[in-house]
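Please decode residue identities from the backbone states below.
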């Protein structure tokens, strides 16, 4: 199931914390997966894959199987200590019109990726190279942390982290996110008028 592109774009207008809370505190990826540059943001349809340890051949192939606007979301078999992605793959992904990469592994060529302006969210940076051992999966459900990630889900990322929402929940989560934004704006207005957070929230 591929979601409505307009709904995907609309979801991306909200911050990840807002989306996560509005969705019922679901879909948050582990906090160790962060943008390699703090101002990077991404939003798109998930194209999941799983790499064998120390191998990035599935990332190469996924670039040409994913559709424009997709975000590659890659698990690396609990072996993050290698640079699974770099500037060459970034160039290839941009040529294909992809919207970013998310991985629980490490990447390299961070300065070049930053200059290219391609959003990459990873566990960290590592200069070790990888091989081309086939295995794992492409386009099938994966797990990152305790979050199940399916093809066709929508992922949003910003400096705070990443959140994944199922395609059939987009309209509901967008509505709830806007309601939450409206409520928080009311709280900000009341704080500026002199009320305290203790008064507003009526903490016991």
């Amino acid at each position: 199931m591929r979601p409505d592109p307009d709904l995907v774009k609309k979801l991306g207008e909200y911050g990840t914390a807002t989306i996560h809370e509005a969705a019922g505190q679901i879909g948050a990826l582990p906090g160790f997966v962060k943008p390699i540059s703090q101002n990077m943001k991404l939003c798109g349809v998930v194209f999941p894959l799983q790499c064998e340890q120390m191998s990035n051949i599935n990332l190469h192939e996924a670039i040409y199987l994913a559709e424009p606007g997709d975000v590659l979301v890659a698990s690396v078999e609990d072996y993050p200590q290698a640079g699974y992605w770099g500037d060459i793959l970034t160039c290839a992904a941009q040529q294909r019109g992809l919207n970013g990469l998310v991985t629980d592994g490490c990447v390299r060529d961070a300065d070049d990726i930053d200059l290219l302006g391609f959003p990459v969210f990873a566990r960290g940076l590592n200069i070790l190279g990888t091989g081309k051992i086939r295995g794992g999966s492409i386009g099938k459900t994966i797990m990152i942390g305790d979050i199940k990630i399916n093809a066709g889900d929508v992922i949003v990322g910003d400096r705070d982290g990443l959140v994944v929402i199922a395609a059939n929940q987009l309209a509901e989560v967008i509505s709830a996110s806007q309601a939450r934004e409206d409520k928080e704006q009311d709280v900000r207005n009341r704080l500026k008028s002199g009320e305290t957070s203790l008064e507003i929230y009526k903490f016991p």
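Observation: Residues 23 and 169 are 9 Å apart (CA to CA).
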